[in-house]
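# nightly structure sweep
# worker-07 picked up a monomer target from the shared queue
# config: single-sequence mode, recycle default, output format = structure tokens
# input follows
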Amino acid sequence: MMMDTLYIVLLIVSGIVAGFVNTVAGGGSIFTLPALMLLGMPADIANGTNRVGVFLQSLAGVRGFRQHGKLDQKAIMPILLPTVAGSLIGSWVASVIPVEVLKPVLLGTMIAMTLLIVLKPGTLPAVDEQILTLKEKPIVNLWLFLAGLYGGFVQAGVGFILLTALAGVLRYDLVRANALKMLCTLVFGGVALLVFIVQGQVLWVPGLILGASTIIGVQLSVRFAISAKQQTLKWILLGMALLVCVAALIK
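# output follows
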């Protein structure tokens, strides 16, 4: 009973933190995925179960940004097409890789992404800067496809890849870039979730507990995301990610 209580508490805490972090910038799965593996789940089951929370928090995030008028409706379809295509391939690859190969790949990738986030932060545009389209910057289609590929495979840190394309190249301000980023993770996260469901790699009870917790984190952070400074958060994210990933590897 005590272990069950600790299990639920760990899921709730990691879910709230993930929902908050994902809405502000990205990388929330750096907390939830190692936490699921730390609790004894095989890497493939943890990866699939984690997508329940990703889908629900993205749904809540998109709703919040849309209510604040920060979602660029005209850009939705052009941005979604390459990301969804990539996510189909990435999630299928992740679902068939042997567990003993997948676990170190997932954890190693997350640590590498966290280091990249902290040591080489992207340059964000000013709020009043002119927004570019995919026709003006066609290279972004490739970047979005790669983001979908990575997001379908592992999810953790994909928000920062999307922000690189949306804010760094298309020059959306941080708030509108985050809104489109949440929409992308909602759609290709849903695609990836379906793939893992078909493969029988989703545990629904911990997945739904995690999902409900991430929604709480999203609700706490949508307004904060409008004016958040990310540097301090990134260093905290690095420290926590390294600790949790090392613990999961030891287990």
